[in-house]
Design goal:
- By secondary structure, the chain is α/β, with parallel strands linked by helices.
- 15% of the residues lie in helices and 36% in strands.
- It is built from one helix and six strands.
- It has one domain: Nucleic acid-binding proteins (OB fold (Dihydrolipoamide Acetyltransferase, E2P), Beta Barrel).
- GO terms for molecular function: single-stranded telomeric DNA binding.
- One of its GO terms (cellular component) is CST complex.
- It holds the Pfam family Ten1.
Length: 137
């Protein structure tokens, strides 16, 4: 039986360690939206992370179902999509905005509703560790 691969749940700050072509699921806070390019910029400044990461989500495939509140600055949204490009920040040359930029082709996007960001940030890495241990067994 074949079909699309499942998405891998990760923190937005962990996206630079992923590979181009991977299907990921993450959440982020809307910091910008360009109607001209159909790109939604998301961030999640995790306190333990030293570098800033911007997820640039191409939402052109979702325009018919995209709601205005999902593009509002400050809104938290969930995204499932494919990584199409990674532009890491480095000491010598920084990507635009002085942060890593991860380009995502958005497949699904929905509002998070009420949630506890600290609990989410603590739980997601633990889920990935448990999955890795199960895969190794």
């Amino acid at each position: 039986m074949s079909g699309p691969l499942p998405s891998q749940l990760c923190l937005l700050s962990a996206l630079p360690s992923r590979n181009i072509g991977e299907k990921v699921r993450f959440l982020g806070c809307v910091t910008a939206y360009s109607t001209a390019s159909g790109v939604l910029t998301l961030e999640h400044k995790h306190p333990q992370d030293n570098q800033s990461v911007h997820a640039l989500v191409d939402v052109r495939l979702l325009l018919e179902s995209l709601k205005s509140e999902q593009t509002r600055i400050g809104e938290w949204v969930n995204v499932i999509g494919y990584i199409t490009a990674i532009q890491p920040s480095t000491d010598g040359k920084r990507a635009k905005h002085g942060a890593s930029e991860i380009h995502i082709q958005g497949l699904v996007l929905w509002s998070t509703g009420a949630f506890d960001i600290q609990r989410y940030a603590a739980t997601v890495p633990m889920l990935n560790v448990k999955k890795e241990v199960a895969d190794d067994a």
